[in-house]
């Protein structure tokens, strides 16, 4: 690896000093700095110093947007059908629930909306989206032509984050050594390699609901909901109200919703407790085969919201009705089965 250029080192020193003193970066400045970082032109100490300075001072919408633009620019892109949606969340809520947004992705696909599902292996949970998909028999590192085929012909493709974001290798070491939340926990769901125009994005803390919606708008997303359950989930929850910020028609509108708004019952958190990848995969398959209960209800809630965001449903109740039909007529399960077949095919 080549040594970082003196100009890059000098820029990093200057920016770290400014951020540590409480100053903020503009979008353009953040782009310049993260271009340096993600090109391998900053030292590990500088990367760690900047990440912690941002974390302590608090990341701004402009900084997150600029950094996300660079992640998107450096990503291995995938072409997605018109109207594709992503259901990726930040993770990090520490809840140990079933895989909710992954299950919702199959339900949404079964309802006819293409899902470019961005995700990774577990970082802070027992079962990340990649873990549960692998346990279901999906080849998460399938050839990219098969991933694209599944997305276009089967309405769902899994975009394994490390395969698309090779530039993240430059920050892997400092992130592991810091061992705490940094701006990159927020950036992952903002960097969908398919640049989906619709998104439902769960965040791990309430203070990020509105800013993340603003960032998605700045990145060119057409319509999005960013959500946080007041029980701590980075999903729409059925155990408490949920906070929602919607990006639509060039502005953010924030509100609270409850399960009753979608015609669903309240549940207890214990009903949503999941386990490891094998446990969650069995529960997800049972759900798609029609098993009733709280897991079905929370998946219907999140899938219904995604169908609203994608313009397939008029409101939450309509979305939940369409989501239930996707499960009950076997379309969601068929999307899973076809994804297994496609991704395991030899080419």
Description:
- It comes from Magnetospirillum gryphiswaldense (strain DSM 6361 / JCM 21280 / NBRC 15271 / MSR-1).
- Residues 84-332 form the Glycosyl transferase family domain.
- 5-phospho-alpha-D-ribose 1-diphosphate binds at residues 89, 92-93, 97, 99-102, 117-125, 129.
- The chain has two domains: 7-74, Up-down Bundle (Transferase, Pyrimidine Nucleoside Phosphorylase, Chain A, domain 3); 85-344, Nucleoside phosphorylase/phosphoribosyltransferase catalytic domain (Pyrimidine Nucleoside Phosphorylase, Chain A, domain 2), CATH 3.40.1030.
- The model has no long low-confidence stretch (mean pLDDT 94).
- The chain has helices spanning 6-20, 27-38, 44-57, 61-74, 100-110, 129-135, 144-154, 161-164, 169-178, 183-187, 209-218, 277-288, 294-309, 316-328, 331-343, and strands at 85-86, 115-119, 156-160, 198-202, 223-229, 242-248, 251-257.
- The chain contains 15 helices and seven strands.
- The strands form two sheets. It has a five-stranded mixed beta sheet, with helices on both faces.
- It is an alpha/beta fold and 347 residues long.
- The two termini are 34 Å apart.
- Strand 6 and strand 7 (251-257) form a beta hairpin.
Summarize the structure.
One of its GO terms (molecular function) is anthranilate phosphoribosyltransferase activity. This protein has 347 residues and is α/β, with parallel strands linked by helices.
Main beta sheet strand tally, sense and closure: 5 strands, mixed
Q: What structural category arises from helix and sheet content?
A: alpha/beta
Overall morphology = globular
Strand content: 5-15%
In total, how many beta strands? 7
Regions with little confidence, pLDDT below 50 for 5+ residues:
none
Distance between the termini: 34 Å
CATH architecture assignment of the largest domain: 3-Layer(aba) Sandwich
The share of residues in helices is 40-55%
Compute the number of structural domains: 2
User: What is the fold named in CATH at topology level of the largest domain?
Assistant: Pyrimidine Nucleoside Phosphorylase, Chain A, domain 2
CATH class (first level) name of the largest domain: Alpha Beta
> What is the residue-mean pLDDT, rounded to a whole number?
94
Enzyme class: transferase
Cofactor: Mg(2+)
Catalytic activity: N-(5-phospho-beta-D-ribosyl)anthranilate + diphosphate = 5-phospho-alpha-D-ribose 1-diphosphate + anthranilate
Keywords: Amino-acid biosynthesis, Aromatic amino acid biosynthesis, Glycosyltransferase, Magnesium, Metal-binding, Transferase, Tryptophan biosynthesis
